[in-house]
Structure formats: structure tokens, C-alpha cells
Amino acid sequence: MTKFKSIVDILLVGLILFQMFKIMRGTKGIFLLNGVLILYLAYIGSSSLGLKSLSTLLNWIMMMLIVALPIIFQNELKRFLESLGSKNPILKWFLNPPPIAPQSIDIVVEAAESLAKARIGALIVFEREDRLTVVGESGSPIDGVVNKVLVEQLFYPGSPLHDGAILIKGNRIQAAGCFLPLDNGLSLPQELGSRHRAGLSLSAQSDALVVVVSEETGQIALACHGRLERNLSGESLRFRLRELIEQSTEKAGPGVSQSGDSKMEVS
Predict the structure, then answer these.
(1) Which residue of 13, 110, 128, 131 has the lowest C-beta tally within 10 Å?
(2) Does residue 66 sit in the same domain as residue 158?
(3) Which intervals hold domain DAC (predicted)?
């Protein structure tokens, strides 16, 4: 029985660490987390070898880190707790987000076509079951009904928010100029830039749908479930968005997230 408890204990700790790594991957916090792990391993090693002075010093540093970590990792911890909450079926039943409105899809497709034709880059995020509160808080609040003129103006090169993403929830633009998590370990074709990397990273960490418009090539892409579909026409984008939303509606009852796997692929 004791052995079984130990195995369960190790598995639970491993699961928590794995979830934290997934959330912090692609952020500066991952380097701090690596540093903390190295210090912890050094402390264990020095204690085992009987190096009292070194182990005392490392123990003091670890105690200081216990106080400092919640401050250093406040954004990452918030994302971690939100990730746990988003998987809770009871909470999802009561906090079920509004569905993506069909008219929002049509407007975004039309805006994406116009932006692509003008070679203006864009990053448009549709929130689904997984809440993207941290993403929204990283930008400037908009809370406006989705319309083609507003979408285009937000990405116009003269706009102070054009470099970030816009976050759409239901039929409203919640925020603009948002920062998305970047997984710098991704191996992408040379012609794909930071917008594609950001969209792909977010789609691997959540069930969000991310529309990417390249200012270099004028091509439209869609990131979903850690996969990137490139060179889409307006009609292809409209079809895929509607198809993915319908699949989510059919397969996912209240409180069920269809997040797919996290394998990142480019097609």
C-alpha cells in the first residue's frame, strides 16, 4: 500500500510539473524554472555528499525563492490555475462561453481577404471552450461588436495595436494588441514569421482558432490543435472555421473541451 501511494505521489507531482512546463513553454519563465530546478538538484547533491556549507547556502537561497516565486511567476501561475479551472466540467457548465457567431466568421473572412490583398499582417484569435483571460489581459480592452472596418483599422500599420493579436469572444472583440505565447523551439519554414509561430503555439496550448495573415506573402493561414493550414482562400477559410466550430458543437457537450493533441504540424 505504501509503495502504491508513493507511485501515485510521484505521478501527481510529475503531472503538475508537466502542466506547468506546457504553460511556461515559450516564455521567459521557462528559463527561470530551469534555474530553480538546477539549484534544487545542486542542493540535493550537496546534502548527499555532506557539503554542509554549500548545502546551507543553497537551502537559504531555496527558502528565499519560495517567497519570491509567486511574484516572479505570477503570470505563469495564473495561467496554470486557469488551465486547471478550464478543465473543470462543473465550472464549464456554469461559465460556458458564448458560441462563435456565424456573422463573426463571415466578417473575419472578409477582413482577412482585404488585409491579405493589401499585404497587411494580422493575427485573429477566436476563443472557444478554453478561457484566454491572460491573452486578453495582455492587450488593450476593446469590447466592441465584430465588424470589418474595426478589424481592418486595428491592424492598419498606423495603429498602435497592429503588432498584436485581437481576441474575439462570441460576436465581440474583447481586446487588441494581445501577446500570444511563443514556442521558440518550433521548427518552421523560413518564410513563416512570428505571427505564424504565435498562432501555432496558442493553438497547441488551447482549443482556440487562430487566423494568420502574412504581410510578407499576403497568404492566409489557420492554426488549430497545433496544426497550421496554409495558403487558404477566403472560401476555404470560411468552410474550415464553420466545420471546426460545428465539430466542436456536435462532439463537445457542456463542460467538454475538444482540444486535440499538441503535436505541431505545418501543412
Answers:
(1) 13
(2) no
(3) 74-234
With pLDDT > 90 as the criterion, what percentage of the chain qualifies? 34
Range of the domain at 69: 2-86
Q: Are residues 137 and 209 in the same domain?
A: yes
200 class by beta-carbon count within 10 Å (0-12 exposed, 13-18 middle, 19+ buried): buried
End-to-end CA distance of the chain: 49
When computed from its CA atoms, the radius of gyration of the chain, rounded to whole angstroms, is 21
Q: Exposed (0-12), middle (13-18) or buried (19+): which is 213, by Cβ within 10 Å? A: buried
pLDDT tens digit string along 91-139?
Answer: 554 455 667 888 999 999 999 999 999 999 999 999 988 888 889 989 9
Domain assignment present for residue 92? The answer is: no
Q: How many CB atoms lie within 10 A of CB 256?
A: 14
Helical ranges in the chain per DSSP H: 2-24, 29-48, 52-72, 74-86, 89-94, 102-117, 133-137, 148-155, 194-205, 234-251
**Number of domains into which the chain is organized:** 2
User: Is the domain of 139 the same as that of 233?
Assistant: yes
The pTM of this model reads 0.63
Helix (H, G, I), strand (E, B) or coil at 109: helix
